[in-house]
Amino acid sequence: MATLNLDILVINTYNKLTLGIADISTYPDSPPTTNPIIAITIPNGFGQVSLPFTQNNFNVFNSQSLGLSDPSLPLTPIPDGVYTLTYSVDPSYQNFVTKNFNRTDILQERFDEAFMKLDMMECDKAVKTQSKEDLDTIYYLIQGCIAAANECAIKESNTLYREAWRQLDYFINNNCGCTGNNYINNFKTTF
Q: b vs e for 155-168, b when ≥16 Cβ sit within 10 Å of the residue's Cβ?
């Protein structure tokens, strides 16, 4: 007979409009659980919402189900930041599990766009190398903020997130400005 062991796992949906949480708990055969609920504390002053949670399943939430947007309007991005998830199978929260994670989907989307705009074939070698280094640094800051939240180091996680955002802003606004002219003027040979 299995014992009750509650556990949840945040699954990346690769979409700034959705939040995926899987139930990876083990449940006893009896007594049955009847009121599974998840409390999600949303960062940036949005507060906490308690929602029904489907056991042994992958649960997907969006701005409407989280109470962040009007159900009659299109979905809006779910904010980045440190979330606290508390999953319980009874309304009194006597049996529960709590996890923190730093959602970085909006930041990651900006990083992906900056990466895809970087023309690796037309910048000179020094600029290309520096741009790769800058993007690597930003990537490591993003990974650091995720790791810090996973270890409940919320202040450090938020600091790393802000620094990644700041450096990404700088990178986007001061990119190498490659137009191909440097390559054409200095390296292209005429046939």
A: eebbebbebbbeeb
Domain boundaries defined on the chain: 8-103, 105-186
Q: What is the CATH number of domain 8-103?
A: 2.60.40
Measured between alpha carbons, how far is residue 90 from residues 10, 77, 98, 118, 167 in Å?
21, 30, 14, 51, 44
46-70 pLDDT, tens digit each: 999 999 999 989 999 999 999 999 9
Which of 29, 20, 114 shows the shortest CA–CA distance to 59?
A: 20
pTM over 0.85: no
Q: pLDDT tens digit string along 72-82?
A: 999 999 999 99
